[in-house]
Each structure stands twice: as C-alpha cells, then as structure tokens.
Amino acid sequence: xxxxxxxxxxxxxxxxxxxxxxxxxxxxxxxxxxxxxxxxxxxxxxxxxxxxxxxxxxxxxxxxxxxxxxxxxxxxxxxxxxxxxxxxxxxxxxxxxxxxxxxxxxxxxxxxxxxxxxxxxxxxxxxxxxxxxxxxxxxxxxxxxxxxxxxxxxxxxxxxxxxxxxxxxxxxxxxxxxxxxxxxxxxxxxxxxxxxxxxxxxxxxxxxxxxxxxxxxxxxxxxxxxxxxxxxxxxxxxxxxxxxxxxxxxxxxxxxxxxxxxxxxxxxxxxxxxxxxxxxxxxxxxx
Length: 287
Ligand SMILES: [Zn+2]
Fold this sequence. Notes:
Blueprint: E1 5-11, E2 14-19, H1 21-25, E3 33-37, H2 40-44, E4 52-53, H3 54-58, E5 63-67, E6 74-78, E7 81-85, E8 91-94, E9 99-100, E10 102-106, E11 112-121, H4 122-135, E12 144-160, H5 171-175, E13 179-195, E14 206-213, E15 219-237, E16 239-243, H6 258-265, H7 272-276
Parallel strand pairs: 2-16, 3-16
Antiparallel strand pairs: 1-2, 3-10, 4-9, 5-6, 5-10, 6-7, 7-8, 11-15, 12-13, 12-15, 13-14, 14-15
Zinc ion binds near residues 208, 210, 221 and 265.
C-alpha cells in the first residue's frame, strides 16, 4: 500500500513529510529519516491521546524521545526499547501496545562522535553536539541532529509530568505542576535531538534531551546536567516524517509562540522554571 502523503514541503534543507497512521505503518526505514508521531503544537493544546503505538514507532527507529498516552511520563527510546520516567521518579519499561501522542525516533547510526573528558556543562555538551554535527561532510547547518551521549554525569536536574485525565489542560498548565528532581551522579545515556528553528511547533526547536541511567533507576527530561566523561555521538537526518492523528495538521512550521515552547520544553536548555515562574520541587520525587 502506498503511503498517504498529505503534505510535502521543503524547509531549507529539511524535508518534512506528513503521514497518516496507515502511512506510518508502511513507511520505509531509512537512516537519514527521523520519524515522529504527532506535533508539539497539538501536544501544547492538550492533545494527550495519540493513535500511534510504540510498536509502530520502534519499527522505524531505535533511539528517541517523547511522551506517552495521557502524558504519563517522559519517553526514552534506547537500543530499540522504550521506557517512561514517571512523575514519581520511577522508570518503567513500556510494551509495544502503549500509544504515544508525541514521539520522535530515528534509526541511530552515528556519523560523528567526540570523546568527553569533562567536566562539561550542559551548554558545553550542546556546543559539542553542534560542532561535531557540523564536522560531518554531509550535514547542513539546519539538519536534524540525533544525539546519544553515554558516560558519567553529575548534578542532573530532571523533570517529568503526571498522568492527565480528560478534559485535558493545556501543556503549559501541566508543566507548571511538573515534578523536578536532582540526581547527584549517575552512569547512563542522554538521548535526544537538536531541531532547527524553522521546524518549531512541529518539534521542539534547539536541543531536547532525555536521560536514562544504566541501572534504569532514574531518568527524565533533562533540565541541566554536567558530563564528566564519556562519548557524544551524533547522526544527522535530513528528512522528518510526521504521523498526524485525525484532527491534527502539520500547521505552518515555525509559526508558534517561542516563549510557550521554552516554557513547556526548555528546548534550549535554559532555566525553564525561571521562564515560567513554575513551582518546581527540587527534592527527589517520592518513591
Ligand atoms: Zn522532553
């Protein structure tokens, strides 16, 4: 069955293609393609019921991030498996039947890497991601960059959000009650993406990173961290295939309230709680 292409456009060097769920199921696996379910704009408006399953997403990529049905935690996809970091700090493995309203993955085959002998701040890690990605022979400045950084980390500030119940509140209201916690040190992996600004609204512009510890005891959306040592690997993708649930459109990429995005995702690694005035809790979450 041919995939259902309802939109097809170029944004700079980045090729964005919209797919129906049937299109997603029949999409081809390509290491230069990042595959996404849903859009950030729809999520920001409270669209927490996705129609794509993790099995469908994992069929098209083995590394990525997002959230899960009912906004019940931060999604981490690593080595072809999926976990959710819940608001109470637990990390649960997820099976393929779990649905997601917002997730992006790629088939990760690193095209460049840099060894870290830190400590590197989060901003330094982000700068290294950009620098290494640019060093790749085929990486345009506005390419999508997938990231996998493995090593030892300290002073992690992680966050997650609590499961929501209909009628859903907008994401900015949910994030105002997010749980944020501090992890002194952990060995693990940071996964994520850097998306070009032109794609804001479809995706989180800038760096968007999630963490999962090797012992699977902690994880979440990265607000801050220090990388002590390890390896930062990147892969550039020049196509983004976006699966759109019924009623969700691709919109106009780039046309989104940047302050709102910064508030809910802190995509550029800035002080998300300072920007929103959100009441975050720096304690470890209850176990
Ligand atoms: Zn996140």
